[in-house]
Structures are given as structure tokens and as C-alpha cells.
Amino acid sequence: FAASSGTRERRARSEMPGDGPGEEEPDPLFLPWDRFSAWLHCICVVGFDLELGQAVEVSERHLSDLTKCTSCMFILLAGCLGDTQFCFRFRQAAVRKSSLGCFLDHCDRDAPVCLKRDQGHFYGYVYFRQVRDKSLKRGYFQKSLVLISKLPYVTFFHSLLKLIAPEYFEKQEPCLEAACNDIDRWPAPCPGKILTLPIMGVVMKVNCPFFSPPCLPCQPLVVLVSIVLPTIHEVDLFRCFYPVFFHIQMLWELVLLGEALVVMAPSPAESSDTVLALVSCISPLRYCSDFRPYFTIHDSEFKEYTTRTQAPPSVILGVTNPFFAKTLQHWPHIIRIGDMKQTGEMAKHMKVKKLKNLKTLDSKPGVYSAYKPFLNKDEDIIKQLQKGVHQKRPSAAQNAILRRYFLELTQSFIIPLERYVASLMPLQKSISPWKSPPQLRLFNQEEFMKTLEKAGPQLTSRLKGDWIGLYRQFLKSPNFDGWFRNRRKEMMQKLEALHLEALCDEQHTEVETVDLVLKLKDKLVSAEREQLPVRTGTLAKLQAHIEYVILSLPEDLQGILHKPSTP
Questions:
Q1: Other Cβ atoms closer than 10 A to 170
Q2: What share of the chain is helix, strand, coil (3-state, %, to 5)?
Q3: pLDDT per residue as tens digits for the range 307-357
Q4: How far apart are alpha carbons 528 and 536 in whole angstroms?
């Protein structure tokens, strides 16, 4: 069943349960299925047909050809009896502008980098069921419910699937239609809000984090909350890294530098969780290269990523097919993950293995690489985690310890870069209302390296090693390129905002104002569109100032200047 393709009429705003900062702001008027589209691109059901093979049986909203092809290839798994959940990621065929574009951009502006919408890729969240059924020719019931979204809310969508999928497998399409109608009444996932989301008779409570987490007051809910999710996106780092946790610091370096990595795992769930754990271990830094939580031989990038005619690309792949043990043997770094359900003995201290020792997917768990870390090994975190295992410390506590370790390590690394990049901003006194905004100074690698002598990571980290070498390698990586592009964009917007404020505070003569008004009107439009970080009231103050001066001009000039700016 697809969304109505007839004339779309404006829907009156519906009051949604929610609490937290920002709720007093009125919601924009939404078209039918706009609220649904703020969370999901589509929902589809993939089944197995003896004649056709894997096929999309049902889809809510439209699927592009690429989406259909990719979804079919990924979903059905041989040998996985029972219920299995995992996620995958694939390129978007073509970027299409949505009627919600500006609104969603506004929501994204204040989101942490790890929670921003993925502009070039989709995420597929899968709930796969395979059970014996003698009434079927194949002898098995095999079907998957898949949510396709731009949002990297892994924990949230997996929890949502646990509610929807079992009901759908039992009650079929009416149940799915009801779920879609519920989702189309949800408020948009705006940062800084605690949302209560009703779904099929259950209410989920989720917190959409702000880019700097605010203190959210506890307020009484007007509805009964059935499920509270402490996080919408984080995976259990300790569980994912447990088989190789002696090498967590080395893995952090490999991800930071954007090295080509393969995760070989026994199941799609373990593959996807481990890849997501690797990507998140450098948070709050965004991983800017490609990553595929579950990659198969049917993926459209299979030839591109497995060719031996060029060096492996900067990508993290999660695989389960034994075929990859041979196909990707030339990759420089391979992680073999064992069965995470076997939580008996603690992993033994293992050396990094040589790549030539990796023959099949049955090889022992470990890290296969010739990489030599830049930093000395941190034995304290290993001992702390080992002690937790011996004392049977709760998994949530172990996960919190490891997440804090990665966070502090990444912050120690990135703070010197933040400090240097901030120095590239022109002084505020150099911003004149009569001149264009000044330019940022260029990033000078050697100049930055000199700052590390007195203001390097040694101020916040106890780790020793070749920090300079690590920085030099990082400056060549896609992660630095993505980070610096984002910081440069933010600083340019800040300069534009400061320039607007300078214009607002300056008193203009009549002749000067006539010359500036047209440019200022364009700047105001641009400031609103780009959401420039100006002080509260600046834009309104500047607009009022322009209007006041225009009214003091002759009527013929007033008529000219009151005409709207051309887009």
C-alpha cells in the first residue's frame, strides 16, 4: 500500500505529546505523510518466492530501483533460524529535494554530528524471521520487515522493529498500515526535545540529544510511557570489542586515520554492530569515509571495493560470507569477530596477527594487520576492563567505561586542532560595516605542528608516543578533510553573523543607506536561510532600522526600496 498520490491538502496541526525545551514553538503545517517522511523514507517487506527469488512484497511509500535491488539482496539470510536484527547502509541513487528540506535542515543544525541525516546514503534497519513451516513448499517461512531512513538512530529503529515486526508477521498488512498512520502523527525528531511517540498501543519515550546536551527538566507525562530509550543511536561498545579489546587503542587509530578495514563476523547482527561500534569510537568526531555495516557480494559497490588493481579505499566493511576471506585478503587491516553470545572465558591477550595467517572465515578471532600504532599502549584501560570481567561488572558499566575512554582520547586529540583553527578567525575589530567580511587565514600544517609543543594533547592525555606522526597522518585523511570543511563553514557563517551585527549597530547616513539597503535585504534573506548564529533580535533590529531609514527618503525611492529582493 502506498501513500495517496492524489491532491495533497494542508493538514491541521495535531497536538503531539512531548516535553522538553522547544515544545512551545509552533509546529509548521505539514502535508500528509510529511511527518512520516521526517523519520522514514519507506517501509518494505521482503519475502522469498521459489520462482522469483527475493522480492519486495509490500512497500509503504515508493522505492527507487536502487532501493528495491539493494533491499532484496541484503535481507534474506540462509542458516539464521529464528529472529535476527541488523542494519545495512547503501548509496542514494539521486538526491531529490523534499518539501521538508528546509525544515529538516533546521532540525539537523543543532544535532550532534553523529546524529545528522546522511545526505548521500540510506540506512536499512532489518527484522528477519526464518522459522520452519511444513505448509510452505520451501519448508520455511522467510520474511523481512525493513525500515529505510536517513537517520542513524540504530537503537531507536531496532526497538521500533521489535514492536512492529512480530505484530506484522501475525496480522499482516492492516497492522503495518496502522503503524504508518501512527508514525505520520509523530513530531519531527528535533534536537533538545524529549519526545513521546505512540505506536500500536505502546508509547516510546526518546531523547533527541542537542549538540551540547542540555539539562532537560523532568516533567510529568500526560500519557503512560511503556518504553524509555536511554539512547537512540549508541551500540554496546564493550560487547562489540570484547573479542579484540586488547587492541582497542590500535582500532581507534585505524578508524581515526580512515584506514581500510574489514570486519569478518559469524552473523549480520554482529557484523553491523561491530562496524557501528568502530565508527562511533571516534565520537564526537564524525567518521567521514564510507562504511557498510553489512556488505555482500550482491552490493553494487562489490567490484569497486574488492578490486586488486588499486589500493583498498577508505571504507569499513562488515561481512559474513566466507568468500571474502580470500577476496579481501589483500586489505591491510582485518578484524575477525567470534560469536558474541559465547561469554564464557575472557579473551586472552593476543598479539596482532599477520595477514598471511588469515586463510578462511574459520580463523581465530583477532586483528590481522601490519600496522604499527603511533601511541604507546594504554595498559590501564585494559586492566580496568579485565577487572570488570573478573568481578562480573554489569555490561552497561563496562560499556560506559569504554565509551568514556574513547571520548576522552578523541577530545585530547581534537582540542589542539580546535584551538588552532579558532586562531584562524579574524579579530572582531577588523570587521567593518563598510567592507565585505574579512577572510579566514589558511590552515598551515607546519604552523599547527609548532603549537603542539606547548599546547598539544599532553595537556589532557597521559598517553605517550608519536603524537606528531599521528597528526601528520590524520591531516591526510578524509576525516580531517570532512571535519575542517565543517568547521570552516561554521566560522564563515559566524563572520557573516558578526558582519550583520556590525551593520545593525552602525548609524548610516541617508545616502549610505540607499547604497546599502538592497545588499542588506539580500543578506537578511541569506541569514534566515542559512540560520546564521546571530544574537537574538539582530535580524529584527536591522530590518526595523532599514525600514526607518527608507521611510525618511522621498516617496519614489521608498517605492523602489520596498520592492522585495529578487531570489
A1: 8
A2: 40, 15, 40
A3: 888 889 999 999 998 888 888 888 999 998 876 554 444 555 556 776 665
A4: 12
Residues 6+ apart with CB under 8 A from 389: 346, 398
pLDDT digits (tens, 9 = 90+) for 363-408: 677 898 999 999 999 999 999 999 999 999 998 999 999 999 999 9
β pairing state of 333-336 and 261-264? parallel
> What's the CA gap between 567 and 549, in Å, rounded?
23
What three-state secondary structure class fits 92?
A: coil
Question: Among 13, 37, 2, which Cα is nearest to 151's?
Answer: 37
Sheet of strand 333-336, all strands in order from the earlier edge strand to the far edge? 290-292, 315-319, 261-264, 333-336, 366-369
Q: At what angle do helices 395-422 and 478-505 cross, to 10 degrees?
A: 60
Strand partners, 552: none
Is the Cβ–Cβ distance between 365 and 292 less than 8 Å? no
Grid cell for residue 498: 558578526
| Positions of the chain with pLDDT lower than 70, given as ranges | 1-30, 49-55, 57-79, 94-106, 210-226, 339-351, 354-363, 434, 503-520, 534, 545-546, 548-549, 552-554, 561-567
Cβ neighbours of 482 (radius 10 Å):
17
- Collapsing DSSP states into helix, strand and coil, what is residue 192? coil
Which of 318, 277, 317 has the alpha carbon at shortest distance from 403?
A: 277
> Can you give the C-alpha Rg of the chain in angstroms?
27
Distance CA 422, CA 131 (A): 58
Dist CA 387 CA 369 (whole Å) = 27
> Coil, strand or helix: which one is 316?
strand
What pLDDT, on a 0 to 100 scale, did the predictor assign at position 100?
A: 62
